[in-house]
Amino acid sequence: MRDARQEAVVDAWLARLSLRQKIGQMTMAERGSVTPEDVKRNALGAVLSGGGSHPGGNAPADWVRMNDAFWQAAVGDEDSLGIPILFGCDAVHGNNNVAGATILPHNIGLGAAGNVELVAEAAGVTAREMLASGLDWNFAPVLAVVQDCRWGRTYESYGNDPRRAGRFGRRYVEALQGEDIVACVKHWVGDGGTGHGIDQGETTLSWEELEATHVAPYYPAFEAGVMTVMVSFNSWNGEKCHGSRFLVTDVLKGRLGFKGLVVSDWDGIDFLHEEYATAVRLSVNAGLDMFMVPERWREFIDTLEAEVHGGGVSPARIDDAVRRILRTKLRSGVFDRPRPARRPGVEVACTGCDAHREVARRAVRRSLVLLKNAGNLLPLDPASRILVAGKSAHDLGHQCGGWTLSWQGEKGNDTIAGTTVWQGIHALAPHARLSEDGGDADPDRDDVAVVVVGETAYAEGFGDIRSGDEMLVEAGSAVDGLMNPLEPYARSQVLAEVHPEDVACIRRIAARGVPVVAVLISGRPLVVEEEMAASTAFVAAWLPGSEGLGVGEVLLGREDFAGRLPLPWPSAAGNVPRFPAGFGLDYGFDNAVAMAYKRK
Ligand code: BGC
Ligand code: BGC
User: Fold this and answer.
1) Going by DSSP bridges, is the β-strand pair 569-571/574-579 parallel, antiparallel, or unpaired?
2) What is the mean predicted confidence (pLDDT) over 493-502?
């Protein structure tokens, strides 16, 4: 009944809108390249904030003011079209573009925690902080099933198990959409399966293999009613997903019966063909509905209009796209909501509140994976004299990783609100001291050292590990269209080669007779044989986010280790993993509360 009523409303709109307005609804521009006046004049359907793109001083109030102005232009003025926009962003580990937001562990850490209710809580925190900024649409969750951890987006994946991705994705969607934020599963499809883990590369698999690993996690999300799907940059057997009528129209909309809207990725259509008109035609005819054309939106509108007039794109295809966009807007409730400044979620000053940080901290505690604990060095005694060292011991930027206030992430403690690992340890162990390079380690003064090392922040292809350019040539030559490879993060998976300062720091301290607990901050497993050999205990902390206290709580035995590897850990030799997926040690506490103050 509700569906029938909504379809009737959509029909009425389709009868009223001009071709130009319909194409406007299919267009999503980036906030930095578009004004409210542009939205009104061009009937734009959506606006997004790219990674790190923010209004004014980046407080929630600045976001609400911005969204209010866009809302006003779309529906509030006398000469407005009357169709609200959807404002979208990538809140992939909390509402991570906004200053002061709670930053949760990246998905790889939630995969290690292995707890689906924690995912729901994380989605709830994200949704409520988004509502407080007047946002509508989250380009999350990522359902990528990572196959090669050299991929720069490994940390955006819950791991290598399609069933886990499906279970977690479903709960994320339910929790997010339950709070009135539109979810977007991405990236359709095969993003985690590219050869050599090259971002935006080529996934070479039979349909059966693609289905079993990369399509499978989408089924539970569809059952949960996810409203939008983002198409992937990668190609499948040579064909770019953005131009694949088979994957988008035949499979997604046909066989799987998806009724919501399909959105392109950032400039994703540009790589289909050198000629823009051809690229536009191919992608619209493949079945994409909304187009993320951040800066090029005017050209997109003109080009698509000319394609329809020239017969390259049928009016029926345009109507299908607009029907799905309007249906999504009706179902999402944006039509019924007041202006962002008057929405209920806005009054709640929840951005970075204690309750949200508590959820994030719990997620940190459960995500940590203990890989080595010789002589039961851990848990540490809170009364002991702990030397805290390493380049990431006191660095929120490193700890949060990419997609945190900026696309590529931050360095240092000036922009992100939170607690570093050092601060977390110090809060629980008052005799701890910080000495970043550990040069003054002294067994008479220091009982034990915690050395926090690993990767600095990166996102997408800038995080790839690529040992040779021949890989790129090989991948590129298999692809129909243009490749867009970014400068990789590293040429090796061996941490000691990429960041020699880390093993140097561990060795410097260990050589003076102070036993070392190494804590690895990284978006993925790395080859850490040397670091592991030089330290007595070793913990994989992934990208824990803003709540470093969670790391301290587990190191100091307030809670047991619960994390298990969400994907295999590579060895120096390659073939055989160093640790299999599912591996993880613990203290063997029977009851975390009873053991809270266990002494060694
Ligand atoms: C990423 C997407 C993201 C989009 C918008 C793209 O580069 O691949 O995951 O949603 O940018 O920021
Ligand atoms: C944006 C990201 C986007 C990327 C794609 C960046 O400038 O901030 O959101 O994913 O470009 O190239």
Assistant:
1) antiparallel
2) 98
Q: What is the DSSP letter of 341?
A: G
Confidence of residue 470 (pLDDT cuts 50, 70, 90): confident
Burial class (CB in 10 A: 0-12, 13-18, 19+), 117: exposed
Minimum mean pLDDT among 187-196, 274-283, 482-491: which range? 482-491
C-alpha to C-alpha distance for 521 and 516, rounded to whole angstroms: 16
Query: What's the whole-number mean pLDDT along residues 106-114?
Result: 98
Supply φ then ψ for residue 20, to 5 degrees. Answer: -60, -40
Question: Is the Cβ–Cβ distance between 44 and 24 less than 8 Å?
Answer: yes
398 within 8 A of 526, measured Cβ to Cβ: no
For residue 599, the model assigns a pLDDT of: 41
Expressed in angstroms and rounded, the spacing between residue 256 Cα and the centre of ligand 1 is: 24
- CA distance to 108, 186, 524, 542, per residue, from 236 (Å): 24, 15, 24, 29
The answer to whether the CB of 90 is under 6 A from ligand 1 is yes
Residue 257 identity (one-letter amino acid): G
Q: Is 50 in the pocket of ligand 1 (CB under 6 A)?
A: yes
Q: Taking all residues of the chain, what is their mean pLDDT, rounded to a whole number? A: 96
pLDDT of residue 83: 98
Residue 594 has pLDDT above 50, yes or no: no
Contact 318, 308 (CB under 8 A): yes
Contact 201, 483 (CB under 8 A): yes
Share of the chain above pLDDT 90, in %: 92
Q: Is 114 in the pocket of ligand 1 (CB under 6 A)?
A: no
Token code pair at residue 244: 């694949």
| Residue 50 Rama label (left phi>0; alpha psi -120 to 50; beta) | beta
- Residue 12, φ and ψ in degrees, nearest 5: -65, -40
Ligand 1 pocket test, candidate residues 139, 229, 232, 290, most atoms within 8 A of CB: 139
Q: Which residue has the higher pLDDT, 45 or 473?
A: 45
Q: Is the CB of 569 under 6 A from ligand 1?
A: no
CB atoms within 10 A of CB 378: 25
Query: What confidence score (pLDDT) does residue 482 get?
Result: 86
Is 265 a residue of the active site? Answer: yes
Position 598 pLDDT exceeds 80: no
Distances (CA, A) of 392 to 304, 388, 495, 535, 553: 48, 10, 14, 16, 18
**Is 307 an active-site residue?**
no
